[in-house]
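Escalated from tier 1: 5'-O-[(L-methionyl)-sulphamoyl]adenosine holo job.
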Amino acid sequence: MKKNEKFALITTPIYYINGDPHIGHAYADIAADIIARFKRFDGFRVHFSTGTDEHGIKVARSAENAGIGVQEFSDIMSEKFRKMSRAVNLSEDDFIRTTEPRHLKSAREFWKLLEKDIYKSTYSGWYSARDEEYVPENEIVDGKAPSGAPVERMEEESYFFRLSDYQDRLLDYYEKNPDFIVPIARRNEVINFVKSGLKDLSISRSKFDWGIPIPGSDNHVMYVWIDALANYITSLGFPDNKDYVSEMMGNCIHVVGKEILRFHAVYWPAFLMSAGITLPKRIFAHGWWTHNGQKMSKSVGNVVDPFEIIEKYGLDQLRYFMFREVCFGEDGDFSEDALKNRISYDLANDLGNLVQRVLSFIQKLDGRLTVNYDFSEEEKALFTNARQMISRVRCLMEKQDLHSALGVVFDLVSKSNKFTNDMKPWELVKTDIPRLNAVLTALCESIRAIAFGIAPFMPETAEKIFKFINVEGKLFTEIDVNFTDQKFPSPTPLFPKEK
Ligand code: MSP
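Tier 2 regenerated the structure:
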């Protein structure tokens, strides 16, 4: 690691492979991807990891039901998630599978670092295989876990982690690092949960063997959540390069769904404290998508297939919709009608139209803008707006306020459309060519800023725009492109109607 270089680790959760990828998984992927792409634009060296979580009783049972061996089942299912990464244009640096030898080694070494906090005892309680966790008696309602999953009685010899010893240290950490858990409402939930008292955590299973064997034991496998959480450091090369691992963890943003926040914001930090590894910078908990107002479930048959939606409406269209429709951190509802509206109003009418008409006007000037403009106050105001937009986006992205960041970019789209209407280039072309050059230059500058703003969200669209205006820069800091010494290519529609 070089001095003065800025680093960031961005992670998605690793996905359970007992079912096919759905829109909720695509959402987690795209969210982390937007954050990773933004950081790269902002000059950070990013390590972005994703992958599949392949151990545990749930996967073993699914393989059994499918009538194939569990490793073969894992290979097939993991491949589907890899395919989803390609389908959503994920810019990951690593796709990790928990059945890989590198992870086995890493998880076992990680376990060894926790040994001073581990003891053996007997556990008896209600286990939810679907959530892969024991559910406290007082949280069981009508024989079910709070998630609605069925529970079963289990009694087994188990290794325990002294989580109770970490209660005060965790609370102290949350207090000193107010931005560790975001959004704030989720942070408060975690704090209340920890304040209500932490019990030691059962961290091994002996009733099944589809897991990572525990060092020094021949009949226990690791609790799937220790195994899964350790993926983040495996991806960094743990157990090698411990300094690098700690440094990167300190600059890490974990993107997780609200239902797995507890694992990331309570257990994982306690494990890391015990292991002497730096805690992540931030854990961002996002909300859940319903479909036409209903919870998605296989049994209801209303699960949205990301591959189908992307095929039908286009990838950038989906990426835009998911982060424009709903505040990142809150729940949202998916409907094709809402998606279609966003595509036709925001994308085709506002953004697509702006780019198309500005660039078509430049074609009327033989594809070239002339030097030496005399910018009027209106053009200067648009330049200022474009610059301010970039710095506002940076501030918002720093807080992972993806929704507002996108809002700020589209505000500039509206302003630019209004500016075009006010300046009436269709009249200037007949009356005042120098002024037309000035107006179009200001609009190009604004479009350039817009392309930077949307680039993390809609990478392919941004790429097209960059090509239209001959911009090759890949950093937010590269401003002041000279639009005067170049020939602009003829534009094609950004959001063709047939998509
Ligand atoms: N394997 C664990 C994570 C281990 S991370 C060390 C897991 N996997 S999961 O496949 O069940 O969920 C992965 C992510 O998908 C979670 O962050 C979850 O919130 C997200 N989603 C699953 N369904 C979702 C929606 N309907 N809406 C939004 N996101 C949802 O948990």
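The first strand starts at residue 7 and ends at 16.
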